[in-house]
Write a structure and sequence with these properties.
It comes from Armadillidium nasatum. This is Translocation protein SEC63-like protein. InterPro entries: C2_domain_sf, DnaJ_domain, DnaJ_domain_CS, Ig_E-set, J_dom_sf, Sec63-dom. Keywords: Chaperone, Endoplasmic reticulum, Membrane, Protein transport, Transmembrane, Transmembrane helix, Transport. The protein is α+β, with helices and mostly antiparallel strands and 766 residues long. Strands 4, 6, 7, 8, 10 and 11 form a six-stranded mixed beta sheet that branches. It folds into five domains: 150 residues, no CATH class; 61 residues, DnaJ domain (Helix Hairpins); 158 residues, Orthogonal Bundle (Sec63 N-terminal domain-like fold), CATH 1.10.3380; 168 residues, Sandwich (Immunoglobulin-like), CATH 2.60.40; 38 residues. 19% of the residues are buried. Helix 10 packs across helix 14.
């Protein structure tokens, strides 16, 4: 509006309130996020539970000691946050001073007289204070002089004194006014150049520069913070070699651009690499350093490949140089391997769609997945999975092979009786043996149940050609301690029963074997454990209970059927009464009765499957809640003494065809398997009828020998014919056709009567 003036804060108290609120909104969340956390008692208990092998001791010491730049970063963060809180405290102190000065207006206290002072004493005290506080004097203060003058008026002027007694202010009741919470010096002429310069520096230079830097960095990376150039490199080599073996996949992994200094400034290149890298290459056979493919022949790729092979072979490196580079490369490997797996699965799906000519095989994606546990556990291809245990070496593993038994997996080792197990590990000390057993108890044990159906279909158990099959994989994760601990073993059982139980558990938990159903019939009932064989009376009781449940469900279905029949018969009677044609009424009666039978049959099925549908609905709600919560990446810590940091165990779930060596569904990475997890995998059924066998696989990215699989069989039927129209519509259309035919016949007669030939005319005249 014309003539309106903005009132700025002369004293600056309102601006201080603005600064306090702004600093509070910034400092409180930043303190919770960026203030370095100290170790908690839970962390101390975790450290006590780890094993005391050489690799774990070095890893704990390395993780305790932060890197130099991380220590400086934490110190700088603490300094900035402490400085911010000190400034906030100073602002609060200044605001309290302003509030005290302006809220506590006492004229007697300001002038320095008592309540019973006379007018002469007030004038005398005022003159004394004004000489000191006058702005023209060296000790003068303009604000205090104005307060002194207002206090003198409140005690000498009758109107001002009356206002003070009534309203507490010599000026009378204060009117509401609005202003800007900025100090007045911002709009002064002398400071305008500095204010404009600061505005241009922050909003015209600083903010656009920060946005440009962020966009430039984020545009180079994928969602998993992998360079897009690295992803293109994976696509090229996977398409070039569809049948990729383990060693070839490792060479492609080492060629990732994250290991090149031009793309990653954290990579360190030292002059000592020219001496140490060639000597390391001589220790590694079949490294492939003479490969001429680009970028496999580049120096950064050869260095990364040599360090990865040294890591898998557990070759000791110089801690100050090459070992630091090894730790950094190994730290990035799980993310890069997951990106490589995604690239392989996408290329396979594109090949199925006919967009690319070459189809990567199932061996390629499984060789890529194999890289992750080998890198995490620092084991080369072909090595025994028992080397994942602490203090276990190749010399000790030789004792595991005898004429009677061959211990090849950790499950088989833990399933042994304690005396035999201790005899196998007799070269270890008691402390070392305890470390082995503590680590064994923490290894995972997966149990998988698979259910496959066609969702959103009347008969979900029938698989037609081209239908969408949904495979639901339910995983239950427990530890080997819960299954094989000595506390759970009944010592009164015979040795034969314990042996049978151990073999069944090993068969069930070992990876890449057929389901347990294939072993039925090989063991007699006498050799089965007592807790497995049920009493005949219990079996009969269970069967009777199941029969009663089925009878109740059938009775409920019949009641619904009778009600529906009654309603349908009533509708049929109404149609008969209203209809004029008996034939059409009888026809509608038959159709309605047929519909009543079919609908009653459907309702009977719906009555039986109500509980199952309700369970599916509840599962869908829980899935939606999990999706809204987000995907967690915390599961269980992995015993990995040669890995850089703490590793959480993840799993891949997918469906494949072993016979054709092809991938059916894209691998789904499970990152939050703590105890139970449900995964849904969907694929299209084959287009030709027949019986097909697929395999549901769950593969670990952290352990060797803990993968599981289960076969599923699909009896694919021919696709159903799509109905062109509803039966009632067909009846209605047929009636319309008859009416049209009748109308057409009448029209023809009229035409014949109107248009006659010449012969007919002569006949009529005769």
């Amino acid at each position: 509006m014309a003539g309106q003036k903005f009132q700025y804060d002369e004293s600056g108290s309102t601006f201080l309130y603005f600064l306090i609120s702004f600093l509070g909104l910034v400092l409180v969340p930043c303190t919770f996020i960026f203030w370095p956390a100290e170790t908690t008692p839970q962390d101390e208990t975790k450290k006590k539970q780890i094993c005391h092998c050489e690799g774990c001791i070095k890893k704990v010491a390395r993780m305790k000691k932060p890197e130099k730049w991380k220590g400086l970063k934490k110190t700088f963060q603490r300094f900035i946050l402490a400085l911010g809180w000190l400034f906030l405290a100073f602002l609060v102190y200044k605001v309290q001073e302003f509030d005290y000065e302006y809220a506590n207006f006492d004229p007697y206290e300001i002038i320095g007289v008592g309540l019973q002072a006379s007018q002469a004493e007030i004038r005398k005290a005022y003159k004394k204070q004004s000489v000191i506080l006058h702005p023209d004097k060296p000790t003068g203060d303009h604000q205090k002089f104005m307060r002194l003058q207002k206090a003198y008026e409140a005690l000498t002027d009758e109107t001002a004194r009356r206002n003070y007694e009534l309203y507490g202010n010599p000026d009378g009741p204060g009117a509401m006014h609005f202003g800007i919470a900025l100090p007045s010096w911002i709009v002064e002429k002398e400071n305008s150049l500095w204010v404009l310069g600061l505005y241009a520096l922050v909003f015209m230079i600083g903010l656009p520069t920060a946005v440009a830097i962020w966009w430039y960095r984020s545009s180079k990376f994928s969602n998993d913070q992998v360079l897009l150039d690295t992803t293109q490199l994976y696509y090229y080599f996977i398409h070039k070699t569809p049948q990729m073996v383990f060693k070839r996949a490792l060479m492609v992994l080492a060629a990732s651009l994250e290991f090149e200094k031009g793309h990653n400034p954290e990579i360190v290149e030292r002059p000592s690499d020219n001496i140490e890298i060639p000597s390391l290459i001589k220790q590694i056979p079949n490294l492939g350093e003479k490969n001429k493919e680009r970028p496999l022949c580049f120096p950064y790729s050869i260095k990364a490949r040599a360090l990865l092979f040294a890591h898998l072979s557990r070759i000791p490196l110089k801690e100050e140089t090459l070992d630091l580079d090894r730790l950094y490369i190994v730290k990035l490997c799980p993310t890069l391997i997951n990106e490589m797996v995604n690239c392989v699965s996408q290329l396979i799906m594109l090949a199925y769609a006919g967009r690319i000519p070459r189809i990567p095989s199932l061996d390629t994606i499984e060789a890529t997945m194999k890289l992750s546990p080998h890198v995490v556990q620092a084991l080369n291809e072909g090595k025994s999975s028992l080397l994942q245990l602490p203090h276990v070496t190749d010399d000790i593993i030789r004792h595991f092979v005898s004429k009677k038994k061959q211990i090849k997996t950790i499950h088989q080792l833990v399933a042994l009786p304690s005396e035999e197990r201790r005899q196998m590990l007799r070269t270890l000390t008691e402390d070392q043996y305890n470390d082995v057993m503590r680590v064994c108890e923490k290894f995972p044990h997966l149990e998988m149940s698979v259910n496959y159906e066609v969702v959103d279909d009347d008969d979900s158990g029938v698989f037609t050609a081209g239908a969408i099959v949904t495979v639901t994989v339910n995983l239950h994760r427990s530890s080997l301690e819960e299954l094989f601990h000595e506390k759970h073993v009944d010592l009164t059982k015979t040795s034969e029963e314990m042996k049978e139980k151990r073999e069944s558990q090993i068969i069930k938990s070992s990876g890449w074997r057929r389901p347990q159903s294939s072993w039925k019939g090989k063991a007699s009932k006498k050799n089965k454990p007592n807790h497995v064989i049920k009493n005949k009376k219990d079996k009969v009781h269970d069967k009777d209970a199941e029969k009663e449940k089925e009878a109740k469900k059938l009775a409920n279905g019949r009641e619904k059927k009778m009600k529906l029949k009654k309603t349908k018969l009533e509708r049929v009677e109404d149609i008969e009464n209203d209809s004029e044609d008996d034939d059409s009424a009888s026809h509608s009666d038959e159709s309605e009765a047929g519909e009543a039978d079919t609908e009653s049959h459907r309702d009977e099925k719906n009555g039986i499957d109500e509980d199952a549908e309700w369970e599916k609905f509840q599962r869908g709600l829980t899935k939606r809640e999990k999706v809204l919560e987000g995907k967690s990446k915390l599961s269980h810590s992995v015993h990995s003494p040669y890995f850089t940091d703490d590793k959480q165990e993840y799993w891949w779930a997918y469906v494949c065809d072993r016979k054709k060596r092809s991938l059916i569904t894209a691998p789904f990475q499970i990152t939050n398997l703590v105890t139970n997890e449900e995964v849904q995998l969907k694929f299209t059924a084959p287009m030709k009828p027949g019986i097909y066998t697929f395999q549901v696989c769950v593969r670990s990215d952290s352990f060797l020998g803990f993968d599981i699989c289960e076969d599923i069989k699909l009896d694919v039927k021919e696709a159903r014919e799509i109905p062109t129209a509803h039966p009632q519509w067909e009846e209605f259309s047929s009636d319309e056709d008859e009416d049209e035919d009748d109308d057409a016949g009448v029209g023809n007669d009229d035409d014949e009567s109107e248009y006659t030939t010449d012969d007919e005319v002569t006949d009529d005249s005769d």
